[in-house]
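[job 4471] stage=fold_predict status=RUNNING
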Amino acid sequence: MQENEKQFINELLSPKTQNQAFKKLIGLYKVQLYHHIRNIVLNHDDTDDVLQNTFIKVFSNLDSFNQESKLSTWLYRIATNEALNHLNSKARKNGLQTDEITESAATNLHSDLYFDGDEVQRKLQQAINTLPEKQKLVFNMKYFQDLKYEEIAQILNTSVGGLKASYHLAVKKIETFFNSD
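[job 4471] inference complete, writing structure tokens
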């Protein structure tokens, strides 16, 4: 961990500097985490809700942050868990499976005012949506966030080798999806 990250963490943990440091934390990570969450839940309004819940959870659990991992890794882990919990909760409320919720969101991207992608990007989201959950997460973190395998392994609490295999399988499945037309 870099010295300036240690100092920043100390500011987050100190009652005197905590509020100011937390505002800085939000400024540093809200865009990255928004995109990460958006790639999981696909819906802008849901993403905003999950992002807000993520920062609430971060703030209320600052004292339990294990300083052996990077702050960004911890934030991504919380955001990932919050996004998955949101999808599971939404599915339960609607009497559906989680993949049915994400499939519907992927299909409806064309009507989402906040989605500014073209047809190829819509199709990519639909292809990603066909992946099993772990492959979907690994692909999104590697492809869209350009995270290193080591960091993804910490976020998802799994091995680097397993992640590389998941990413490779995900890419092959996405290629097959695109070539099936």
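[job 4471] summary: The first helix runs from residue 3 to 13.
[job 4471] exit 0
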